[in-house]
Amino acid sequence: MDKINIIYISIEGNTRNFVKNLSSYAEAEHAKDDTNPVINAKEVSEQTDFSNEEENFFAFVPTYLDGGNGIDNGVKELMTNVLGEYIDYNNNARKCIGVIGSGNRNFNEQYCLTARRYAKKFHCDLVADFELRGTSRDVTRVYSALIEESKKH
Description:
Rossmann fold; 5-stranded parallel β-sheet; oxidoreductase activity, acting on NAD(P)H; Flavodoxin/NO_synth; FMN binding; NrdI family protein
């Protein structure tokens, strides 16, 4: 495995920052041992033209809710819908091999709710999570989790 593909959406920059740090970490690990994969990341936004994904990828999604608590009175997703639509496009969902979620632990059961919903909808695992912009420990942990999950596919 020479690379790990990531498709993500970032609303306030937290996920973008995490993916940037993850990519830098992967580059450093690859420089130490070229069998360590690099990160190939693509950000999806409202301006993104949908395309067919040809290779397996992981989806990184934060949770933003606007109404409902996601548990007993429904949920109204906010701002991240375009990523779900992108994964739903043609056969892209077949290439989604895992979801990584982010959020704010202050929201209890809503923490990473969107990621959990994506994993269920697209029939893949919730591979890892991190809070807000994540920490360096989160970067190392998520990178390892991506490698392990990639080996299964």
